[in-house]
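Q: My collaborator sent me two sequences in one message, no labels, and asked for predicted structures for both. Can we handle them in order? The first one she listed is below.
A: Yes, handling them in the order given. First sequence, followed by its structure tokens:
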Amino acid sequence: MDAIVRFSRLWEEGAKGGKKFFIFGKEVQEEPLKKKVFKARYLIRKEIDRIGYTLNKLKERDERLFNKLVDAIVNNDELRAKVLASEISEIRKIVKTLVMTQVALERVEYRLDLFLTLGDVATTLAPVVPVLDMLKSQLLREVPELGIELGKIHEELEGVLDDMSFYGGFEADVVLDREARKILEEAKTYAEQQIKTEFPAVSLPDGNKI
């Protein structure tokens, strides 16, 4: 019961009279866990919206390049067609990654909302941390700026789970990579379907398709 009381205090009030640390010799109290999760939820929504804006811009560029590609094929300009096809291919690769990330982050956002509604139900929050870690690892290779931002959110929520464990909020073994991978696989499948639906394919003179 004592652990539950300590955790409830940490959740609502922060570490008043409890967990503290020092920065440049100045005593600083830990933020309430609830505030940390709210902050992470806000940052997740911010990244989802930013991805949406970027996707719209990429789709517009893809459409312009695709029209130029069709003209190059019609005019038998094989060299120009290959250059355009290569650029379109790179754009669609990034689009696929961003769509997958957007869908996965929407799942994360839903879990954070649920967590904030239900309180200290760690099984709701736990899979979010490995999802963000896996997304961060992929994005650092393909979209570094976004990967860095997700890395910051991952660290924040990882700290929340560590505190919950310390104060008896949950058992560590509820953090299952399997559930996190399931979320990402579903997001990847959706992204592949979106690419097929929203982006037209064309056959190049050499027989390849994009």
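Q: And the one she listed second?
A: Here it is, processed independently of the first:
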Amino acid sequence: MPATEADDRHAPAWWTAVLLERVPNVTETQSIPGSATPSTAFGESGVVDLAEATILIVDDNLQNLELMQAYLEDLPCRILPAKDGLEAVALIEEHNPEVILLDVMMPRMSGFEVCQKVKSNPATRDIVVIMVTALHEVGDFERAVECGTNDFITKPVNKLELITRVRSLLELSLLKRRYGEMLSLKRRVGPDEGSRQEAGQKLE
């Protein structure tokens, strides 16, 4: 698949740009005594830092698992492999990854079951789940959507498509987390304290 076709069809770059405009640069955020340390989702330049992110790849086929892991080595993320759904659930509870690449047809626990478990838990429902599947029946896609999957990638996996899709969704996930942290910080500080700090800075 040509690079331009993959980018136009699968990478929501325009939405990433919208969020980047709305989320303030972390370097411009004033430090507040007694407040929590801001997330490092942004680097010093204000660009989303993917180095802190974790990607979980789940596939019972070792060849597919190693192939996707090799493709994603170009991203500066920690990559965790899981050979089935049960192992994936244990790694999710331990590491809380930002993105899960999830095979559908697996023994012991299918991708549908893993996705449903992730999305039904308030602690993990914000994790981005990308179903990696060779299934082509409309009913299978409908079931995946009902389970809460965020996106699909069809097998055989194309490297450019995989990297483009994962990077875009990973950036959105980190932006969403950072924005949530900033809103939470703003609620804790309150408008009165914020006004006092601003007045103090003007006096200085």
